[in-house]
Amino acid sequence: MEKLKVKDVFGVKKEKVSSYFKRENVDKKFEEELLGDKHIVIYGSSKQGKSALVQEHVPEENSITIGCSTNMTTKDIYASLLRQLDIQIKSYDEHSTSSSGETSLKTSFKAMLPFFGEGGAEVGGKISGSSTNSEQLNYVEYNLSIAQDVSELLRKIKFNKLVIIENFHYLDEEIQRLLSIDLRLFQENRIRFIILGIWREKNRLLQFNRDLIDRLIEIPVEPWLPEDFNDVINKGSRLLKIKFSDNIKKEIEGIAFGNIGIVQELCKEICLTGGIYEEQEQEVLIDNPEYINKAIEKKVEEFASSHMRSLESISDSGHYTNGLYLPYYLVKVIVQSDIKHLKDGISKSNLHEEIKKIHYRGSDVRTSDMTNLLHGLAERQSKKMISPPLFDYDRVNRRLRIIDSTLMFFLNFKSKDEILEEIVSPAEN
């Protein structure tokens, strides 16, 4: 039998790692809700195990997965779903004339489902390639702009899979709202969605559509407790026949900022630094503190390029807002903040006060300026192609949160002065 590799046991990757550990309060709840009839929303910070949770409990053959991007609409999402079912989609041009006489052209899409002579389409799956159906008689058109049409089409082919929407947070806020409205109708038609998104507050979708109450269940993947980390480390260690010393484990847990992805990556790097690349013949003790120091250095170096680029991109946007350059000062306050204060987020009022202290026109920074800055932060990160996003503003609790814990890790171990040296003040230019 081939030996297990360290990279297959520890680390962050698209495929499931062997050290996955089921948590009673998360995995059991997810298993129970899969047996119900509600949509399921799985949310939490980046690299906290959302995709891994779905991979563990939803077989690939029982689901259709759609990955969202920043420019997608609900029509794009539904078109992707139907294409994966081999349902034919045709585009056509619509001409419309306004009251002023101007003519505009819009491209629309329709799904074409054939009627069959007997039996209908195959249950729950693709309609093509069936040997049991007789010749096609005619086509019925379904408008992808209308959730009712999409639901009828899916019922027609007896669709019985789960629709997984990954990276819901990438969608424009208006598209999130429209999809949230459509979800009620899908639930009534027994078509269920699992939605994965990077945010930390409850009721994100209910803010868009209160009708989803009792039609949707939320499962947060956070927090990860120290004992959870210990279970994951111990499971992976047993598989590789290694043993991390108690001091090493405590240090890993202490610098991970509650993020399982950081724990996984540190465990992997510590093993590789110690010359362990695969399952050992007999148990090996890992207790050299230099291994973790070198693992930290490597991860900081890996995170540096993407995080520096992202921070520069955010700070360099919004130059024309009354000449205040607030994105730059926002980044500066975050970088200069004590890492302990960043863990639970920063309130809008505290951000306002801290920016006024360091701003070259502090007295001109109004509350409304802060509101516009924070409400536009998601769009700003999206336009700058920052993926995954670093920050999320909780409008209900009025707190700015770091939702990529690798940024917390980076800020904790990288010199603040070195970071700020790379981020040039637009006002100075």
Write the layout of secondary structure elements.
Elements: H1 6-9, H2 24-34, E1 39-43, H3 50-57, E2 63-67, H4 74-83, E3 88-97, E4 103-116, E5 136-143, H5 147-156, E6 162-166, H6 173-188, E7 193-197, H7 204-208, E8 216-220, H8 226-240, E9 242-244, H9 246-254, H10 260-273, E10 284-286, H11 289-315, H12 326-336, H13 339-342, E11 346-347, H14 348-358, H15 367-375, H16 377-383, E12 391-394, E13 399-402, H17 405-413, H18 416-422
Parallel strand pairs: 1-7, 1-8, 2-6, 6-7, 9-10
Antiparallel strand pairs: 3-4, 4-5, 11-13, 12-13
Helix pairs in contact: 10-11, 11-12, 11-17, 12-14, 14-15
Shape: globular
Number of helices: 18
Strand content: 15-25%
User: How many beta-strand runs?
Assistant: 13
Distance from first to last alpha carbon: 63 Å
Q: Helix content range of the residues, please?
A: 40-55%
Strand sequence of the main sheet, in spatial order? Answer: 2-6-7-1-8
Mean pLDDT: 88
Radius of gyration over C-alpha positions, nearest whole angstrom: 25 Å
**Weakly predicted, low-confidence segments:** 116-124, 127-137
- Specify the biggest β-sheet: 5 strands, parallel
